[in-house]
Each structure stands twice: as C-alpha cells, then as structure tokens.
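Revision sheet: structure tokens.
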Amino acid sequence: MTGTTHPLSGELTGAGHRLVQRVYYEDTDFSGVVYHARYLHFLERGRTDYLRLLGVEQGSLVLEEDRAGLVFVVHRMEIDFKAPARMDDILTILTSTEKAGGAKMILNQEIRRGEQLLIAARVIIAVINAAGRPRRLPEALAARFLAKTQENAGAAPR
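Predicted:
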C-alpha cells in the first residue's frame, strides 16, 4: 500500500507525518499513567506508518533494494518526557525528517495530547545492508524523506 493517507496509517502533512492513537489500559501502569517504555511503541508506529505512506515497504527493501538489501535500524534515540499521558487520552504522534543521506537518517518525533507536548524525541536511524554493514541511502529514497522537509523548511511537525 502506498499513498499519502490511509485511515489506519495517519496522514502525510506539509511537515511530515501525523498519526492519532488512543491510550489503552495495556499501555498504562497501575496508576493509569502511560508506562515510560510504551512511548517507544507509539513512536515506532509513527515512524513505520510514515515510511508506509511514503511508499517505503520495509519488508521488501531487505530483499530487493539493489539486491544487497536495505534495512533501517535505530542507532540512537534521545527522548524528553515532558508530561504524562493517561488511559483513554487521544495522542497525536508527529514525525518529520531532519536528515536523510549517507548511511543515516535523523527523524524528529513528538507525542502530543491536543496542543500539549508530552514527548519530544530525536531518532538516528542507521542504514545497513542485509549483511548488517553500513550502506548509503539511495538518492531517490532520500528524496522521498526530504521532500516534506523542503516543503516546510524550518517548521516543527504539526
């Protein structure tokens, strides 16, 4: 599935990607607050659906891209926890590309409840081949990630 929108995958925006998710009981600790590690799940969903709507099918890249394979792996993640989310909150996960080229991508992500910023994350993605060695991100693929950044240069994801 490719395209710019799908009900389950959120939508591409002028600044990147927007995904809406509800907080369920399984996401919370005994007090009804989202457990800190669950935010990683929300962030991953945002990144995965961003790729999906850009037409990047991760499963096929490992098998097909230049026959050497192409895999994205999280190399580093910086997360600022600003405020807690609670059960039944409606969260918006925003993802935008800061850099795409060479053997890495840098994505900026936010989790918001309405206008309130709950989580800010910077994710460095290493680009490797199927054998686990660094490889360059193909220019055509980098252009897909950078197109949204160039459309809305300097703006935060919204």
